[in-house]
Amino acid sequence: ILYFLNMSAETVTQTGQCNCGNIKYEIASTVRFSGYCHCKACSRAMGQSPVHLVMFNGADCIKVTAGNVKHCSGIGKMRHAFCGDCGTGLYQHPDGADVRAVFPVNFQIEDGASCRLPEKYHPSLHCNYENRLLDSTDSLPKCKVWPGGEMLNNDGTPTQA
Description:
Blueprint: E1 12-17, E2 24-29, E3 31-37, H1 40-46, E4 51-57, E5 62-66, E6 69-73, E7 78-83, E8 89-94, E9 99-102, E10 126-127, E11 142-143, E12 151-152
Parallel strand pairs: 3-10
Antiparallel strand pairs: 1-2, 2-5, 3-4, 4-9, 6-7, 7-8, 8-9, 11-12
């Protein structure tokens, strides 16, 4: 199922910040995947569904370089990190997990001409598709729950092997 995890083993470095600029961070890690998540923990925390996440390997992959990140519990074992001043969601992870799911909308990618997300962070799948609010008609694979598990069609019916 490695085709879902279309990222290389190359360590990427990325900077980001919250909306007000009080929180600044750096990421240095490998990317596990980039995709749209439809789970209730992500959707409710961000107030939309699906949520675009870039999943980085390592519990210590994010280094906060300015400000104090606030943490709170979410649905189940989910932990959310956000700016205590402006409320911007920064990243999240299941308690005890060795990954961090980062919101790429906060990446510092503006170059004066564009704010387009680099291709290496483009979504490669949908996960937790069983919880979708609406069907997605794009051509990305739809994982019922997580990569490596059951796959679904755009309408939520199981795919034929």
